[in-house]
Amino acid sequence: MRRPAETRHGFLKLPPGWKRGQARGPGPFVTTETLEAPDGTLVRWRSRAHRKHRPGPNGAVWWRPGSASWWMAVLFGLGSLCFAGAAIVSQWASVPRPGIGVTFFVGSLLFTGGGYLQFSQAVNTEHHPPSRAARSRWRPASWEPHRIEWLASAVQFAGTLFFNVSTFEGMKRGFDPKQADLRVWTPDVAGSICFLISSELAYAEVCDRWLCLHSRSPSWRIVAVNLLGSLAFGVSAITSLVEPSTGDPLSAAIANATTTAGALCFLTGAVLLIPEAAREPPEAGAEVDGSG
C-alpha cells in the first residue's frame, strides 16, 4: 500500500517558498515528484535525471575524463569486453585456460570499479536542485535504503564483489566438483542474483513502477538492456553448475553463450550511459520532460 502523498516524497530539499505535490514510484520508493515553485510553476523532479545529467565542458559528450559518470561507463564497458572475449574463446579447448581465468578476473575488477563509482554517485547526489546546489563534501558511503537508486547501486556493487571471488577462485586448478560448486559456482550465482535485483530496481526507477515500456526514452533503453544482460548472466550461472557424476558443467556451451550475450548487453548499456549523462540537467525552475 502506498503512503499518503503528504508523507511520501523524495530526498530533494526545496528552496524557500516551494511546495511538494504528487509523488510517484514503485512500492515505497519515490522516483518522480511534482513540485510547485513560488510563482505557481509546476516542476517535475525525477531521481535518475537529477543524479545522472551532468554535461561536460564545451558540450563534450564522448570524451569527458573529468566526469565520474564517464569513467563509470568506460569501466563497465571494458569489463564487459573482458567477459565477452573470455566467454567466446572458452569455446575452443586449445586456448590456455589460465589466460581465460585471468581475463574473467580482470573483467570482474573493472566491474567493481564501475560499480563503486555508481554507488558513490548515488551516495553523493546533491539534495538540492542542480541550479542551486552547493558542492557538499564527498562521502565514501552512506546508508539510505529508502532510496531506490542507492539500493540498486549498493546491491550491484555487492554483486561485483561476489564476481571477484568467483573469478579469482576460477583461476585456480585442482578442484573436485563439490569444491568447484562451493568456491566458484556459489559466489557466481550470488553475484548474478545481485545483478538481477539491481537491474530490476534501476528499471523500476525509470518506469516509476515495476514494469513499463518506454522505448523512446534513452534511460529506459539503458535499464532494459542491462536487465536483459542480468537475465543472461543468471542463465549462465545456472548452467555452470558442475555435476558431481561427470565433473563437467550442466552445459558449458549455454553458459558461454549466455555470458557472451549478457556481456554484450552490458557493453551496450555502458556505451549508452555516456550520452545520457551528457544531457542538460533539469533546472530548478523549468518544466522537466518525462523521458528521464
* Total of domains: 1
The H/E string reads EEEHHHHHHH
Principal-axes geometry comes out as elongated
Q: What share of residues is helical?
A: 40-55%
Secondary structure tally, helices? 7
Low-confidence stretches: 1-6, 282-292
Largest sheet: 3 strands, antiparallel
Average the pLDDT over all residues and give the rounded result.
87
Indicate the proportion of strand residues.
5-15%
Rg of Cα set: 21 Å
Structural class: mainly alpha
Q: How many angstroms separate the termini?
A: 25 Å
Q: Quick one: how many beta strands?
A: 3
Q: Please list the strands of the largest sheet in the order they lie side by side.
A: 1-2-3
Write the layout of secondary structure elements.
Blueprint lengths: L18 E6 L7 E5 L5 E5 H6 L15 H22 L7 H27 L24 H23 L6 H31 L10 H22 L12 H26 L15
Antiparallel strand pairs: 1-2, 2-3
Describe the structure.
- There is one protein chain.
- The protein is mostly helical and 292 residues long.
- It has one domain.
- 54% of the residues lie in helices and 5% in strands.
- The protein is built from seven helices and three strands.
- The chain has helices spanning 47-52, 68-89, 97-123, 148-170, 177-207, 218-239, 252-277; strands at residues 19-24, 32-36, 42-46.
- It has a three-stranded antiparallel sheet with strand order 1-2-3.
- Strand 1 (19-24) and strand 2 (32-36) form a beta hairpin.
- The two termini are 25 Å apart.
- The model is unreliable at 1-6 and 282-292 (pLDDT under 50).
